[in-house]
Structure formats: structure tokens, C-alpha cells
């Protein structure tokens, strides 16, 4: 300790703190780059990727009743929207994939489409 009446001077730790901060930042950057390189470009497990061959709608005029905390709503449903997708990884097997109407409007025949593998 210091003598009575003399203040105790704490040694400077600025260089050590800077070195620890820089080291931690380098480790985080390396981990993020590793994750980016390791996981980019690979297909996710349980998902299939293929080309949209055909788009079609099964027409059904239905009323859907949605009940939530905000109350009940009636929705008119035109039908179910599907893509027929050819998956080259599975010997060009064709899948009919039920999709959201918003996706149906955006995607075109010939584009790639990724969907969960059917059970």
C-alpha cells in the first residue's frame, strides 16, 4: 500500500486493454468469415432445390374463418396455388408444391425454387 498522505498510483493498463480488445475483435471476425465461407453455397439439410416447370391454381371458392385475439374475420379464398418443380438431384423427379399466392405472383416458370422436402 502507499504511505499515509501519499496517493496510490494505479499502473496504466491502456496497452493491455487495447491488445485484449483487438484480439477479441480479430477472433470474432475470423469466426464470422469462417461461418460465411463454410455455410454459403451449400444446400440446407431437408430442403430440395429445383426448377419451376409449371404454375397452376386449383380453383375453389371458399370462405375461410380466421379467429384470433382481435376477433373473427372472413376471408374469401380463390383456391390453392402450386408450383410443379423438377429436382435434378432426385433424377428429375417432379414435385407439386403448395405455396403462398404472393410467391406465386413473383416467381416465373424456369426460375429456381427451394422448398422443404416432403415427408
As for the CATH topology of the domain at 47-116, it is: OB fold (Dihydrolipoamide Acetyltransferase, E2P)
Please give the alpha-carbon distance between the first and last residues.
72 Å
Which range best describes the helical content: under 10%, 10-25%, 25-40%, 40-55%, 55-70% or over 70%? 25-40%
CATH class of the domain at 47-116: Mainly Beta
| Uncertain spans | none
The CATH architecture assignment of the domain at 47-116 turns out to be Beta Barrel
SSE ordering: HEEEHE
Shape descriptor: elongated
Question: What would you note in describing this structure?
Answer:
With 119 residues, the chain is an alpha+beta fold. It has helices at 14-39, 101-106; strands spanning 47-68, 71-87, 93-99, 112-116. Helices cover 27% and strands 43% of the residues. It has a 4-stranded antiparallel sheet with strand order 3-2-1-4. The protein has a domain at 47-116: Beta Barrel (OB fold (Dihydrolipoamide Acetyltransferase, E2P)), CATH 2.40.50. It has 2 helices and 4 strands, in the order αβββαβ. It is elongated, with a radius of gyration of 29 Å.
Amino acid at each position: 500500500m502507499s504511505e499515509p498522505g501519499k496517493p496510490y498510483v494505479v499502473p496504466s493498463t491502456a496497452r493491455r486493454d487495447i491488445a485484449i480488445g483487438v484480439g477479441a475483435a480479430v477472433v470474432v471476425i475470423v469466426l464470422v468469415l469462417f461461418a460465411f465461407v463454410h455455410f454459403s453455397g451449400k444446400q440446407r439439410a431437408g430442403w430440395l432445390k429445383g426448377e419451376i416447370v409449371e404454375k397452376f391454381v386449383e380453383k375453389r371458392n371458399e370462405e375461410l374463418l380466421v379467429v384470433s385475439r382481435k376477433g373473427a374475420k372472413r376471408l374469401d379464398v380463390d383456391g390453392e396455388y402450386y408450383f410443379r418443380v423438377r429436382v435434378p438431384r432426385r433424377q428429375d423427379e417432379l414435385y407439386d408444391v403448395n405455396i403462398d399466392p404472393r410467391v406465386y405472383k413473383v416467381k416465373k416458370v424456369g426460375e429456381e425454387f427451394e422448398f422443404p422436402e416432403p415427408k
